[in-house]
Description:
By secondary structure, chain A is of the alpha+beta class. The first copy, chain A, has helices at residues 4-20, 26-32, 39-51, 68-78, 86-97, 102-117, 170-184, 192-196, 199-202, 208-224, 247-255, 257-265, 316-336; strands at residues 55-56, 65-66, 120-124, 133-142, 145-152, 157-162, 230-233, 274-277, 289-298, 301-311. Chain A is 46% helix and 18% strand. Chain A binds chain B through residues 100-102, 134-135, 137, 139, 141, 147, 149, 151, 155, 157, 159-161, 221, 233-236, 238-240, 246-248, 251-252, 254-255, 337, and chain B through 100-102, 134-135, 137, 139, 141, 147, 149, 151, 155, 157, 159-161, 221, 233-236, 238-240, 246-248, 251-252, 254-255, 337.
Amino acid sequence: xxxxxxxxxxxxxxxxxxxxxxxxxxxxxxxxxxxGVSPATIRNDMVALEEDGxxxxxxxxxxxxxxxxxxxxxxxRLSSVKPLSAPERRAIESFLAGAVDLDEIVAxxxxxxxxxxxxxxxxxxxxxxxxxVQHVELVPLGGQRVMMVVITDTGRVEQRVIDGLGEVNxxxxxxxxxxxxxxISGLHLGEVPDAVEDLPAQVPPEHRQMAxxxxxxxLESLVERHEEKIVLAGTANLAxxxxxxxxxxxxxxxxxxxxxxxxxxxxxxPSMLTVRIGAENFHEGLRSTSIVSADxxxxxxxxxxxxVVGPTRMDYPGTMGAVRAVARYVGQILAGQ
Amino acid sequence: xxxxxxxxxxxxxxxxxxxxxxxxxxxxxxxxxxxGVSPATIRNDMVALEEDGxxxxxxxxxxxxxxxxxxxxxxxRLSSVKPLSAPERRAIESFLAGAVDLDEIVAxxxxxxxxxxxxxxxxxxxxxxxxxVQHVELVPLGGQRVMMVVITDTGRVEQRVIDGLGEVNxxxxxxxxxxxxxxISGLHLGEVPDAVEDLPAQVPPEHRQMAxxxxxxxLESLVERHEEKIVLAGTANLAxxxxxxxxxxxxxxxxxxxxxxxxxxxxxxPSMLTVRIGAENFHEGLRSTSIVSADxxxxxxxxxxxxVVGPTRMDYPGTMGAVRAVARYVGQILAGQ
DNA sequence: CCTGGCACTCCGGGGTCCTCAGTGCTAATT
DNA sequence: AATTAGCACTGAGGACCCCGGAGTGCCAGG
Lengths: 337, 337
C-alpha cells in the first residue's frame, strides 16, 4: 500500500513543510528532493497519501500539509534522532557545570533547553518518590512553632512550618529529631510511613501531641505533594508561531501545572524519548502542539521528566536530539552533586 | 493652562479609551460624560491637550488616544486607587489562607494577582537582606560533602552543598554547627559577615579548612545571590492585548528576571504604590507596557515587591487597588507564619 | 467663551478583478 | 502497468477602487 517512494514523498513533505511553513506542491518537491520522478507521479502518490490520511490540503489548489497521522509516521519510521553538534554539546556542559544547587541546575537546564530548541522547555523537579531521606531537621521557631526541613539524596529540600503544638520544649525537639533521624535517615521515601508508625509510642506522653503533629506533616509533605514542581522557559518562542488554537489557549494550558505534569507523565516507553503529536494531547489548548519528552535520572532510575512544547510543525529530529542530550547531561550533573 | 474642564476631558478620554480600546471622539465624550458642554468645546480643549502632549491622534479624522504623559497625569492627579469589593477581599483571604509554606504563599499570591487584574503578575521572594538568621544547619552528606541549610525568620530556606572539604568528621561538623549558631542566630543578615570574621581562629587547626570553606559559602549565598527569585503568572492574559512592540518582545523581557527585578526595585516612593508607564520603563520590550508595583512586608519593613505588567492602556485605579490589597494581605499572612 | 454649521480628511469594510500556484484527469509514452 | 506531458479547472489572496461615516478644524453668530 505504501511503497518506498510514497514514504519518501511523505518524508519530503514533512521536511519541506517544517522548513517553509507553506503547503508544499508536487513541483517544489520534484525540484528540491532527488526523487527521480516527475511532478505528475508525485501527485499520484500524494493522492494515495491523502486517502490514507497522512497529508491534507488546506483547500483545493493548494499544496499538501502533513496531518498528525503523517507526523506520527514520520517520527516513528521516517526519521532518526539528530545528535547535537560538538559545539552544542560543549555549550551544554559548560552551561550546566556552574550550577551550585538543585534550584540552579533546574533553572539553567530549562533555559538551556529552550534556547537549543527555540521552543518552550519544561523541566520537572526530581521526584521525591524515588529518593531517600538524607536528614531531617527540626528547628524551634519560638512560640508554638517548629520548622521541619527534610533533605533528600537528590538534593531536594522540603520545608514546612508546623504550628499549634502547645508549648515547644527544646530538649523534646532534640529528642524527637534524633529519634526521627535514627528511624528514617537513609530510608527510601516509600518506606517512611511504616518506619514511623510506632514512633509516637516511644515518646513520653507529655510530648506525644507534638510528635504526632510533626509526623503527620512529614508524611503529608513527602507523600501527597510529591511531583508537583515544574519550571518553564522560552514561552516567548511561541509568539513567532501561529497556532490553529489561539496563542492564549496555549499559554493558558502551559500555566496549568497539573496538566503539564500529567502530559509529561504519560510516557509510553519509560526512559525513552516520547513524542506526543497534536490531538494525541488530550488537552484542548494543546491540540495544535507537539510535546517531546524524556526521563532523566541517575544511573538507570528515572527521577523526573524534561520536555519541549512546540507547534506540531516542528523539527522533530532536532528537538528529539536536544531533549535526549539535555536529559543525559542533567542526569550526569545530578549524579555528580 | 489646564483648567478644571480640560482635566475632566483628559480623564474622560483615558477612561473611555481604556474601556473601548478605540480612539475617542468629541461627540462620544459629550454623550457619555456629563461635561455640560458641546462637542465643539470639547474639541477645542482637545487641541490644547494635544498641544501639551497629553493626547494624540493616530491619524487625522480619528479620535484621540492618551499618550504616556497623559496616563501619567491621570494616575498622578485624576484618579484614585479603587478599593476592592468585599467579595474580592474575602476571595483573597480564603485563597491565601491555605498555604503551608513560603513557596506556596508566593505561588498562590502570584496566581491570585494575575486573576484579579487579568494581567501578568510578578511576585518577588522576600529579600534576604532584611531578614535575620533563624538557624543554620550543617548535614554531612558522606564523602567530602556537607549540606548547609540556612533558615531565616521570613520563612526562606537557602541550601547549598559544599564539596571538597577533605575528610569530613562528624563531631567537627557538630562543633562548627553549634559555634555558628551561637555566633549568628538571631542576627540580621547584614551583621553576619562581621560576626563570623574571627570564627576560623576558634576552630582547631585540623578542621580550619572546612570551617573556612563553609563560611565562605555561607557569606556568598547570603550576600551575593540575595534578591534574585521571582515568580510570574498570567502571561496568557497578554495574548488578548495587541502591543505596539511585538508580543514576543514583551514575553522575552518577562523572561529576563534581572530586568524585572531591576524594574520592580526602582520604586520612587518606598512602601507606596509605584506606577511606571510606557517609555518610563527603560527596557525596550516593555516600552508599550505599564508596571504597577508595591512593597510588601511585615510591620513597616519592606521585604520585597509585587507587581503587575500590562498594556499602558490599563485600568490603573483597579489595578492599583488590587496590587495594594494583595500586598497588604501577603504581609499579614507572612507575619502570621 | 461657547456653540452650531460646514467643508474636509481618511480609515476601513466590501466588492471586483486578476494572477498564479497547484491540482486532477486524460491521453500518450515507456 | 507505471510514468509522464498536457491541459482545463479551482480557489486564495493581492491589488484596486469605491464609498460611508466618524471625526476633525475652522468660522461666524450667540
